[in-house]
Amino acid sequence: MSNFGVIVVDKPEGPTSHKVVSIVRRGTRVRKVGHAGTLDPRASGVLVLCLGPATRLSEYLSSSIKSYEARIRFGESTETYDAEGETTSSAGEVPTEVQIESALEMFRGEIQQVPPPYSAIKLHGKKAYELAREGKPVKLDPRAVTVYELTKLEYEPPELSVRVECSAGTYIRSLAHDLGQALSTGAHLSALRRLRAGPFGLEDAVRLEELEEAMRRGEWQILVRPASEALPDLPIVTLEEAELERIRNGLRIPSKDGATGMARALDPGGDLVAILVSAENGQEWQPRKVFIS
User: Nearest to residue 289, comparing CAs of 55, 65, 63, 64?
Assistant: First the structure.
């Protein structure tokens, strides 16, 4: 089904993630479209859009590992932790390459990170950026995130290019700000490109302008990737007709080889019909999300 799957967009700098969703909803006339992980307007790169019933997969995709290429500018801190915000401090100096290499080690592995005050995190019933814009104090609690890779690519003072692979919920803006604080020079994020989100990379993505052209021609369906590709790490359970009917009705099915964790249930044609979870007895699959009626 063309309205059940994902479209991987190479988002340009400028539009919000929500704007891209609106463009696709209007151009495809698919009522339900959502994204699996926000990109800031100034950021570019992989934005995974879920269409139709596949919007129910976004919780899994949003929690997947992300990869980025980021540019960090030393010498100035800003209120938003990126180039959009007003300068809050200016050091007039930049760190050496040796100092940077030493400081980067502090931000690898599991770390405690405070999200930026200009973020969409809810605080007292309002988004943090709304409170910040009103001039109200924003105090967000640190949270545990994991930085699997933090590699220096190039340093041309005052800008450092790095590659980051991290867990969901990691703010690259906070990483840039905190690195500047650790080096006592201040820093902010000057550019960000998402290289990968879960199983999807830039090699899977279509440029937004190409997608818009395909929608104008009525040929966007060829850009929809099967929903079954969204969670490649989950094992596959291919259903027979009788099992398909049980899953459709929310009933368990026996597992031939034992059931552990989660799995993708596919129909005989290879289409995703459900996400399964192992039952407590370890011998049956219980449907968690069913995509057919």
Answer: 55
